[in-house]
Design goal:
binds guanosine-5'-diphosphate, binds magnesium ion, Rossmann fold, 2 domains, 10 helices, 285 residues, 7 strands, alpha/beta, seven-stranded mixed β-sheet, single chain, Conserved Hypothetical Protein Ylqf, Chain: A, domain 2
């Protein structure tokens, strides 16, 4: 099969492997279905059917999810919203099994960028009866295959690189899909998250979920709003250094970790057609 020379190792591995597969399942985080996509999938999509699975539905805004599903249907993209309920599994298995040839089980690979929920999805799809198996003839790559009734599946053969658009890595750091170091550390990531949420009118939900105290004054008056807010969070959580000052890096880490795990309430960070967010100098904007 043809694949472009610039394709990263993970993508090449998937391209080679895809010849043996019936179906590719690409998992993306429902909170940012654009930013958590991998551009490498586009190279595969013409060759094998790709089913898009949106994970972390419970952490995303239900209305926004509806808009995204309409958008995927408009683009004729096969998309499925995955939730953690056991009774949702049978319809999903039936839906995927339609891609199996009549003479054998369905062979599929679950792919996506780190931490979107690939392994959890695969474990739930295959259920408790899954067993690790050696592989299939002609595939010598060291990937782990799992079998359960009707499915032979491989969990992320190779790491898929995320998109390179500006703004994407910031969103990925907030969702726990990229290390905060790539955007300048946890303090920087957390400050930008606070500003972003405020600008998008998503702040009030997060604020009340965590009982966050805001500094006095109107938004426009608060030049250092994000800094003061994070400092307040750090103080409350006891993220202190010698002398009683707030350890802003630690406070940032606690905010980001909680946000990524959905502990600050359901939030969707991007909508179809959004111009990707670009950082602004003025924190009060
Ligand atoms: N709340 C919630 N958490 C999820 C969901 N899917 C995955 N996770 C969590 O997200 C983290 C990463 O999931 P994992 O399957 O290991 O991601 P992978 O790196 O893509 O294989 C884990 O802590 C999972 O428990 C979901 O639908 N809802
Ligand atoms: Mg995994």
């Amino acid at each position: 099969m043809w694949f472009p020379g610039h394709m990263a190792k993970g993508g090449r591995k998937l391209a080679e492997l895809s010849e043996k597969l019936d179906l590719i399942v690409e998992v993306r985080d429902a909170r940012a279905p654009f930013s958590t996509s991998s551009p490498l999938i586009e190279h595969i999509a013409g060759v094998k059917p790709v089913v898009l699975v949106l994970s972390k539905k419970d952490l995303s805004d239900p209305k926004a999810m509806g808009v995204w599903m309409e958008e995927f249907s408009r683009r004729k993209k096969t998309a499925w919203v995955f939730n953690l309920r056991k009774d949702s599994l049978e319809p999903l298995r039936k839906f995927l099994s339609r891609h199996a040839p009549p003479y054998r089980e369905l062979r599929l690979a679950v792919v996506g960028i780190p931490n979107v929920g690939k392994s959890l999805f695969l474990n739930m799809l295959l259920g408790k009866s899954r067993a690790k198996v050696g592989g299939i003839p002609g595939v010598t790559r060291e990937v782990s295959w799992y079998r359960s009734s009707g499915f032979l599946a491989v969990d992320s053969p190779g790491i898929l690189d995320p998109r390179s658009e500006p703004g994407v890595h910031r969103i990925l750091s907030w969702l726990g899909c990229a290390k905060a170091e790539v955007v300048g550390g946890y303090e920087a990531a957390a400050l930008e998250l606070i500003r972003f949420l405020r600008r998008r009118d998503l702040w009030n939900g997060v604020k009340s979920a965590w009982n966050i105290e805001e500094p006095e004054g109107t938004w426009e008056e608060r030049g250092e709003f994000a800094e003061q807010t994070l400092e307040g969070i750090g103080r409350r959580l006891g993220c202190l250094v010698a002398g009683g000052n707030v350890d802003m890096e630690l406070a940032g880490r606690r905010l980001i970790d909680s946000f990524a795990a959905g502990k600050l309430g359901p939030v969707t960070l991007e909508m179809p057609g959004d111009p990707l967010w670009t950082p602004q100098k003025n924190s009060g904007s």
